[in-house]
Amino acid sequence: MATTSLSKADRRGQIVDAARKVFAEKGYYRAGVADIIQESGIARGTFYLYFTSKRAVFDAVLDDIFRRIHEQIRAIEVPDPWDEGAVLAQLRGNAERLATLMLADPRSVRVLFAEAAGLDEEAGVKLADFYGRLGQWVADSLEDGIRLGIVRPCNPLVAAHALIGSLRGMLWAWAFGLVELDQATLVQEALRLARDGVLTTGREVRP
């Protein structure tokens, strides 16, 4: 067992990172606290200083994934008068930051899209809250665009979740080996979906 001295925050982060790996590789139900303890190199008592159960550390893993995703997202400022290049640059920035984060961490993608989905009611509530906040953020930007006439008339919240769902689908397929995906491809497809799907202009998005 490792005996190196870490701050409480660093030790907790070490356990969360180990748990993310274990849950991604074994799945929630097959994973046990003993697996997480072994992966993190700590004593059993140390684990229980930070988490009361396997479920508690799984929630911490989800919260950490949610936090990392939100940190990559910037609000889209829709200029008036309309400047397509400025908006696309902001969209590209968000897409590139998310692509860099998610493609570098397939374990988080597996936990988020496979292990958390359908786990139980509590996990469902956490996911609904996360996607609800993300969807509302995108919808607010779409509403600004509709007012300026550069987003097609639509139900902003429905369109927002359609865009989020398409990105989620690409990442899910990549995490489970159904498609090959690199940052350039993910960014390109995400921008095409956003531009061709909701903007009133529909010209080719260049990489």
State the main characteristics.
single chain, 207 residues, mainly alpha, Arc Repressor Mutant, subunit A, Tetracycline Repressor, domain 2, 2 domains, 9 helices, elongated, disordered C terminus
Overview of the molecule:
The protein has helices spanning 8-26, 33-40, 44-50, 54-72, 84-103, 106-115, 121-148, 156-175, 183-198. It has 207 residues and is mainly α. It has 2 domains: 8-53, Arc Repressor Mutant, subunit A, CATH 1.10.10.60; 73-198, Tetracycline Repressor, domain 2 (Orthogonal Bundle), CATH 1.10.357.10. Helix 6 packs across helix 8.
Low-confidence runs: 202-207
- How many H/I helical runs? 9
When the domains are counted, the total is: 2
Given the C-alpha coordinates, what overall shape results?
elongated
Cα distance spanning the termini: 48 Å
Residues in β-strands, percent? under 5%
Largest sheet: none
CATH class (first level) name of the largest domain: Mainly Alpha
Order of helices and strands: HHHHHHHHH
Question: What's the architecture of the largest domain in CATH terms?
Answer: Orthogonal Bundle
* CATH fold node name of the largest domain: Tetracycline Repressor, domain 2
* Rg from alpha-carbon coordinates: 20 Å
Query: How helical, in percent, are the residues?
Result: over 70%
Using DSSP, what is the number of strands? 0
Mean pLDDT: 88
